[in-house]
Amino acid sequence: MSVNSKNLKLIIGTIYSVVLFVGLFFLFSAIDLKDLTSYDFIKLNKDLILQYKEENFLFLTLTFFFFCIIWVLFLGFASPLLLFGGFVFGKWWGISIVLTSTTIGATILYVLANTFVKDFVERKLAPKFSKFKETFNKNNTLYFMCFRFVGGGGIPYAVQNVLPILFNMPIKNYAIATAVGSLPSMFISVAIGSGIEKVIDENTELTFIKVVSSPDIYMPLIGFFVILIIAFILKNIFFKVNNEKNRTIKD
């Protein structure tokens, strides 16, 4: 059976779907979403998690590192990883773990999707994004880096990870653009997670005013809004250039 055979792709896709479904089932069976929104629950378990980290730093780091890779492979979104990484490991160690692991996970996902479900991805995404192919291929590393920098322009993280399949982007370029482009926005989210941990540690009661008045929170938020403004400007420039090219071609 060849790697590109439809039967093998069907088998791989079925196994992937089953594992994803089973994993999500056990995840949400083990976690009560109400607890995750309870301040008392978070504060209590914060101390337990941080104490465990101090006693088992290497083990927790490696566990979280590989969990991030698997999470990305199963099409998980990045925000929980970023906030948890900052909350538990702090800004600098947190961004190091999450950026490296998500880059590896995204690259593996890109390779697997490009090998086994390329036709499916192209069928679903080409109608909306193929118009950017000519511009993208001029310098795929730079354009994809900018794309990552602005958070994919609101496109879900899982879709961002497989989008370059449309442009046949080399794996090396993909990995570099993902790591460098994702760094600013990811660092801001990790910093917010770290700030939340400090705010919880300093206050017995958590209020909106106490949260937004903390420098550990409002400074990353300012950075986040700066990136949003830059993303808006770059998006308008990018679409303007492509629209002008499309008019020129039609004329």
Describe the structure.
- This protein is mainly α and 251 residues long.
- It has one domain (32-250).
- The protein has helices at 6-30, 33-36, 39-55, 57-73, 79-89, 91-116, 118-129, 133-138, 140-149, 157-162, 171-202, 208-212, 215-250.
- Helix 5 runs antiparallel to helix 6 and helix 9 runs parallel beside helix 11 (171-202).
- The longest helix has 36 residues, at 215-250.
- The chain is globular.
- The termini are far apart.
- The mean pLDDT is 76.
Protein topology:
Elements: H1 6-30, H2 33-36, H3 39-55, H4 57-73, H5 79-89, H6 91-116, H7 118-129, H8 133-138, H9 140-149, H10 157-162, H11 171-202, H12 208-212, H13 215-250
Helix pairs in contact: 3-4, 4-6, 5-6, 5-11, 6-11, 9-11, 11-13
Task: Jot down its keywords.
single chain, 251 residues, mainly alpha
Summarize the structure.
With 251 residues, the protein is mainly alpha-helical. Helix content is 82%, strand content 0%. It contains 13 helices and no strands.
Mean pLDDT: 76
**Fraction of residues in helix:** over 70%
Task: Find the structural class using helix and strand composition.
Answer: mainly alpha
- Quote the beta fraction: under 5%
Termini Cα gap? 49 Å
What integer value in Å does the Rg equal? 20 Å
What is the strand tally?
A: 0
Low-confidence stretches: none
Tertiary shape: globular
What pattern of helices and strands is seen along the backbone? HHHHHHHHHHHHH
